[in-house]
Design a protein that fits this description.
With 370 residues, the protein is α+β, with helices and mostly antiparallel strands. Helix content is 33%, strand content 23%. The protein has helices spanning 3-23, 27-41, 45-50, 67-77, 84-87, 89-98, 127-136, 175-184, 300-313, 343-349, 354-368; strands spanning 106-111, 123-124, 140-146, 156-161, 164-167, 172-173, 191-196, 216-223, 227-237, 255-258, 269-273, 276-282, 319-327, 330-337. The longest helix has 21 residues, at 3-23. The N and C termini lie far apart (58 Å).
Amino acid sequence: MSLDMFKKISNYLTVSMNIAKYEKRNFLLVLYRIIAGRVFYGMGPDKFDRRRFSRKKLRQNREYLTLRERENLQKSLCLEDAREQVESKLRFHEKCLSHGLLTPAIYGVFLTGKCHVPKDIPVARSRKELQDFLVRLPPGKYIVKPISAGHGRGVAAYNIEYGRLTKLSGDSVELDHFLRQITTHKYYSAGYLFQEYVRPHTKLKPIMPGPGLGTFRIVTFLMGGRSVEIPFAVVKIPVGDCVTDNFDGGYSGNWVCPVDVGTGRLGDAVGKSPSVRVFATIERRPDTGATFREMIIPLWEEARSTVTKAALVFSDLRTVGWDVAVTDNGVSILEANWDWGENLIEVAHNRGLRHELTELTRRSLHSGRK
């Protein structure tokens, strides 16, 4: 038996045991259902768990789009020539500022390749230039991230003081070590940027107490030329010492909460925890005791109006998943994703989006042709 095959079998057994233990069910029955889901619907154990099919009929898998189906829908709404507006964090930053959209400050970039950089942003290309730039930075916390990578890859937070770097844990980082990291792990990016370290609104800190900022993924669809619909919203919840809120299908250890688009009211979080190794609802944070359900997001109307304006500014992209921070200083857009997936939404709201996404895409395309 190959190592790859052994890992696959082990995963089937592990997921089955975890679900059986948590739900107090027969292990063999759970394993049988997972295998049936794979044979008849192409749904492996991780999807079975993430979509919580232990309490659903297997045929409900038809309510979920396949990866290729979803990609085709989003590509039809976001033509290739327009995607760079949001794929490059620097171009996105520049366009936001030029249209009065609040976005975190970028203090400088370290380039490892060719890239468009707005003229007011300092650029470093060598060790000496990087050292000089770090010395000039005001002491404080900064986010360092690849210019064009997604899914939280390569993102880190540092204290920078008079050119010296330390992790938020307090561990010192030598400049040469830092330089090797950002030149070796490029994540298909032309370099790294140094960005403002944003903190959540005071009223959100009970559910976001750690170093990571939890952002709201708010999805917009453009209907016609001036009408914007917001069908889905969730909030990503960083867990533990995680600096990013990236969900990554649940593998990151972070959680996600559904948000009522109309009211800004939260539901229970969804994810895994050290005590529960399957996807399940999480009513409260064990570290703060804060409950998720019924919390009303501050500045929610401002968040809705912000992404509505942004959708019109970036109107070449007919659908966008906006990553929005709600802070004491207002609503700030961190990133925009044309390929925003559906995983976060489905997990948080516990339903497939086949019908809704297909219909939204049809209406957006039809209205755009008028």
